[in-house]
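re: the backbone from monday

yeah here it is again, tokenized this time
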């Protein structure tokens, strides 16, 4: 094979070119083994994508900000009708999520096993709880907590809850630095 099919990312995951576009990674990004990142995907400085995730920017773009973590077994995709997936800075996305055609502003939170569908929007410090299903076109407001299938707002988040969310984000940033050190040693 003369054509380069994939590249190893820092941490051991794989980057794949699609339609002539390679994913772009910022400084200090950790991509865990088993992860596949395809096409027009950009990931900001200090972010991490954990084991066995797929980020597929093949029919639209995916952008991930700085200091964000996307945890094990999560799938991030887009909608071919022009709906991008845009994920801000310091976002926490839990294990086994499906993020599809969604915008998540800075410090947003998606709990483990949650699904966000086309055209959904999570404002800064908004939270979609574990196992929730955010149906197409729904908007989670700043500091709102949405739960259920389909998800509905149940209350506003307290300062303590927001501090806990940020602690989780910082914890993953620190863990990614340790993994990168192990990978590079």
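seq for it, each position gets an aa:
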């Amino acid at each position: 094979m003369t054509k380069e099919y994939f590249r190893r990312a820092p941490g051991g995951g794989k980057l794949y070119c699609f339609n002539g576009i390679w994913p772009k990674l910022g400084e200090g990004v950790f991509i865990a083994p088993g992860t596949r990142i395809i096409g027009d995907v950009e990931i900001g400085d200090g972010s991490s994508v954990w084991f066995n995730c797929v980020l597929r920017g093949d029919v639209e773009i995916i952008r991930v900000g700085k200091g964000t973590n996307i945890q094990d077994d999560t799938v991030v995709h887009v909608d071919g009708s022009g709906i991008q997936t845009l994920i801000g800075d310091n976002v926490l996305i839990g294990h086994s999520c499906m993020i599809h055609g969604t915008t998540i502003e800075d410090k947003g939170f998606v709990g483990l096993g949650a699904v966000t569908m086309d055209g959904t929007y999570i404002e800064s410090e908004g939270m979609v709880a574990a196992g929730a299903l955010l149906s197409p076109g729904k908007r989670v407001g700043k500091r709102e907590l949405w739960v259920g299938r389909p998800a509905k707002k149940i209350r506003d988040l307290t300062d303590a809850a927001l501090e806990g969310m940020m602690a989780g984000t910082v914890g993953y940033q620190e863990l990614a630095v340790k993994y990168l050190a192990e990978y590079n040693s």
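Residues 163 and 169 are 10 Å apart (CA to CA). DSSP finds one helix and 21 strands in the chain.
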